[in-house]
Amino acid sequence: MGSALPLGLAWPESNLIPPLFGTDRSFHVYVHIPFCEVRCGYCDFNTYTAKEIGSVSQADFHDAIILEIERSANILASSGYPVRPISTLFFGGGTPSLFSDTQLAAIIEALRHNFAFEANPEITLEANPESTSPRYLEELAAIGVNRLSMGVQSFDSAVLKTLERTHRPELVADLVAAAKGAGLSTSVDLIYGAPKESLDSWKRTLNEAIDLGTGHVSAYSLIVEPGTKLARQIKTGELPETDDDLDAEKHQLADTLLSEAGLSWYEVSNWGEPSRHNQAYWKSADWWGYGPGAHSHISGNRFWNLKHPLTFQQAVATKSPVAGIEYIDEKTRFEEMLMLELRTKEGVSTSLLDSLKVHQETVDNFIKDELLAKSGNRLSVTAKGRLFVDRIVLDLLTN
Ligand SMILES: C[S@@+](CC[C@H](N)C(=O)[O-])C[C@H]1O[C@@H](n2cnc3c(N)ncnc32)[C@H](O)[C@@H]1O
Ligand code: SF4
């Protein structure tokens, strides 16, 4: 099989036709749009404001993505990979809603031309309320986007101010209604645990989110990422520390209210109609991630792109945007499966634990403490266990 790869980093020769892993053989695409109008104080994602990004224009960046798509199709074809139509596409960021419908349509067309789409692909766009309008939502629907994930975070203006979000909460209801009117499935992202956010404020946010009638809600516990403005504000005492016990209460409140509203949990931070794209990650399906810093996973090979949009762009034009590649051995793969699948309602199979040589006593102790529950040959986290899932995984792997 030919290995004349047009990009800089070649795949390991022995893995040109890698063994197929897992049961989910579908193919998925992530496109990273690394632009934001303002950087929120808590966010350390690979995204840049106009001031931070210097000479990279959105137009040049867009051209680089199209080129990367063409090159990826060549790589897959020359590697003998059994290319399948795209099952899900996710525009994430950054702020993908800063891209016009024309720019997004050109990316979708390039993917269609190079890979084709399945009959009913899920095409999601992450949007910020302040860069979205009812008209834009109609344009999105017209180019084939069928799912909107809106970054709402909170309905409390004081919390939005702490998080340095720039939108007015009043905007959200009209935008969600417009998205539904345009035929899009809708989801909102919420964050709980911002400094000074009370349980009551979080309850109001949840109730307002529920009133929107979206089919899906993500609720993330705020992570204080090192190096962010938020971390500095907490360190200097400008803002109070976050409170783990209160966060646990907020998670439980989210679960109670969202479940009562008919949105049942399917992953620690997600409720409602499962996103097919996220499920692909959790099931270790294959995906190609386009754009700076994006990660890909193709049949046991994991590779990731150069992080900065400028170096990414220059590399795509001349050689490879790939910064690193690793072949995931079986043990690592099983460990990752445990990490991802234990976060889901389906949980993990006991045979996976056997493969990882997890001590039965450790499992039994978690069951006794009502953190894990067994049903047939599957093991899943209980409502209490969801709060400690990372700790449980660590203990299962090390005890
Ligand atoms: C990176 S953003 C991209 C989409 C969009 N720009 C937005 O802000 O909604 C995706 C999600 O990650 C969340 N997020 C970013 N940093 C986070 C942090 N430190 N802790 C918890 N959630 C975070 C955002 O709030 C958002 O809901
Ligand atoms: S808008 Fe989203 S991606 Fe941009 S800085 Fe804020 S949280 Fe991060």
Describe this structure in words.
The chain is α/β, with parallel strands linked by helices. It folds into 2 domains: 13-282, Aldolase class I (TIM Barrel); 330-399, Orthogonal Bundle (Arc Repressor Mutant, subunit A). The protein is 40% helix and 21% strand. A hairpin with a 2-residue loop joins strand 7 and strand 8. Helix 7 (199-212) runs parallel beside helix 9. The N and C termini lie far apart (44 Å). Bound molecules: S-adenosylmethionine and iron/sulfur cluster. S-adenosylmethionine binds at residues 42-43, 45, 93, 95, 126, 128, 151, 153, 189, 191, 220, 222-223, 225. Iron/sulfur cluster binds at residues 36, 39-40, 43, 45, 47, 93-95, 128, 151.
